[in-house]
C-alpha cells in the first residue's frame, strides 16, 4: 500500500519520570515518515524527563507544574496542536520504531477507520499477555481529533484514559482497527519502582481504570466489532 495524501499529524507523548526511557520513544517518533509534530507533555516529573526531551531537535516540550494524570497531560498536548489526526504513544516503550508509529497512523490517513489501536506482540511475554487479555487498554493509538474531543471528562482521568477512548468510540459507532506492534513492550511498574512499590502502583492503576469505567458508564453499547489488520 502506498503512502496516503499528506494530512497534519501530531504524536503526543505523555511522560512522568521517564528520563531513562523516553529517548527510545523520541527516536522512533523522529524517524516516523508520517508525523508532522512531536509533543512531549511532562506531567510534573521530578527527574530530568523534560530536559532529556528538550535535547532532541524538533520536539515541543510542555511541562506541567504538578502531576495531574495521564488524561490531563493528553488534553494539554492536544491543546498545543491544530492537527486533526492525533497519535499517542507511551514514554516507557522498548523496541519502538518509527514504522510502528506509522502503522497506527496510516489507516487513518487512508480513511480506513476513526481510531487505530496498536497491540504488542513479540516483545516481553507479560506485556503481550496483558494486551491479549485487555487490548482496549493499549496506550498506543491514533485517532481523529473529534473522537478524542468526544470525551469531555478526559482531563479528570488518569490511567483510565484508554478505556474512556474505547468507550467513546463504541458509543459513536466509530470504526476501530487494530494493528500488531511486533517487538514492542512497555516497562512494568515492578521494573520501574521495585517489587513492593510497583505492586502498589499497579493496584492504583487498576483502581483508576475502574473509576474511569464508572465515570464513562461502564455498560458498553453494542457496536461494530474491531477488525484486525
Task: Supply database-style keywords.
alpha/beta, eight-stranded mixed β-sheet, two-stranded antiparallel ribbon, 9 helices, 21% strand
Q: How would you describe this structure to a colleague?
A:
The protein has 229 residues and is of the alpha/beta class. Helix content is 38%, strand content 21%. It contains nine helices and ten strands. An eight-stranded mixed β-sheet has the order 3-2-1-4-7-6-8-10, sandwiched between helices. The protein has a two-stranded antiparallel sheet with strand order 5-9. Helix 1 packs across helix 4. It is globular. The two termini are 13 Å apart. The relative contact order is 0.15. The C terminus is likely disordered.
Layout of strands and helices, then pairs:
Elements (H helix, E strand, L loop, with lengths): L8 E7 L6 H10 L5 E7 L5 H6 L4 E6 L5 H10 L5 E4 L4 E2 L3 H12 L5 E7 L3 H9 L7 E4 H4 L12 H11 L4 E7 L2 E2 L2 H5 L1 H21 L11 E2 L1
Parallel strand pairs: 1-2, 1-4, 2-3, 6-8, 8-10
Antiparallel strand pairs: 4-7, 5-9, 6-7
Helix pairs in contact: 1-4
Quickly describe the structure:
The protein is α/β, with parallel strands linked by helices. It contains nine helices and ten strands.
Amino acid at each position: 500500500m502506498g503512502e496516503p495524501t499528506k494530512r497534519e499529524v501530531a504524536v503526543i507523548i505523555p511522560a512522568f519520570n521517564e528520563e531513562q526511557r523516553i529517548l527510545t520513544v523520541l527516536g522512533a517518533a523522529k524517524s516516523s515518515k508520517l508525523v508532522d509534530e512531536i509533543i512531549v507533555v511532562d506531567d510534573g516529573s521530578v527527574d530530568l524527563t523534560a530536559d532529556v526531551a528538550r535535547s532532541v531537535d524538533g520536539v515541543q516540550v510542555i511541562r506541567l507544574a504538578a502531576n495531574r494524570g495521564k488524561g490531563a497531560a493528553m488534553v494539554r498536548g492536544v491543546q498545543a496542536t491544530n492537527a486533526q489526526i492525533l497519535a499517542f504513544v507511551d514514554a516507557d516503550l522498548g523496541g519502538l520504531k518509527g514504522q510502528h508509529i506509522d502503522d497506527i497512523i496510516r489507516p487513518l490517513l487512508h480513511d480506513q477507520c476513526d481510531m487505530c489501536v496498536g497491540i504488542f506482540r513479540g516483545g516481553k511475554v507479560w506485556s503481550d499477555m496483558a494486551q491479549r487479555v485487555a487490548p482496549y487498554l493499549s496506550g498506543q493509538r491514533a485517532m481523529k481529533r473529534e473522537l478524542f474531543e468526544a470525551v469531555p471528562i478526559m482531563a479528570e482521568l488518569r490511567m483510565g484514559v484508554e478505556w474512556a477512548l474505547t468507550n467513546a468510540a463504541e458509543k459513536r459507532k466509530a470504526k476501530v482497527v487494530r494493528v500488531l506492534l511486533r517487538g514492542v513492550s512497555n516497562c512494568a511498574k515492578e521494573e520501574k519502582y521495585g517489587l513492593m512499590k510497583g505492586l502498589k502502583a499497579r493496584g492504583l492503576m487498576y483502581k483508576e481504570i475502574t473509576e474511569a469505567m464508572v465515570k464513562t458508564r461502564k455498560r458498553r453499547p453494542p457496536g461494530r466489532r474491531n477488525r484486525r489488520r
